[in-house]
Design brief:
The protein is 0% helix and 52% strand. It has 119 residues and is mainly β. It contains no helices and eleven strands.
């Protein structure tokens, strides 16, 4: 059973930066990809970024390209999201999820971490 724990959220002014972390635990951990998603109040959860666990290749939502960077530490089973030039519209609860195989959906959601960007 894989468990994901997000951390690093907080309150920051517009233009500031935060670094989120998602630590995976379990007897054995493997993943096809890890992803960051976010959900703002009254909105559906949306994709932010993802990283292929084996190759490190990345994809980003258009709204965060050039500002956010996803990375991973395979030895620590941890994925990071470096968020720069934050905007008020980035305010949301950020979740990480695991895509176990290329055919599976993202799951094993953590509890989320709140990011609030003030204007």
């Amino acid at each position: 059973q894989v468990q994901l724990v997000e951390s690093g959220g907080g309150l920051v002014q517009a233009g500031g930066s935060l670094r989120l972390a998602c630590a995976a635990s379990g007897r054995t951990f493997s993943a096809y990809a890890m992803g960051w998603f976010r959900q703002a109040p009254g909105k559906e959860r949306e994709f932010v970024a993802r990283i292929r666990w084996s190759t490190g290749s990345t994809d980003y939502a258009d709204s965060v390209k050039g500002r956010f960077t996803i990375s991973r530490d395979n030895a620590e089973n941890t994925v990071y999201l470096q968020m720069n030039s934050l905007k008020p519209e980035d305010t949301a609860v950020y979740y990480c999820g695991r895509k176990h195989t290329s055919f599976s959906s993202y799951g094993s959601w953590g509890q989320g971490t709140q990011v609030t960007v003030s204007s």
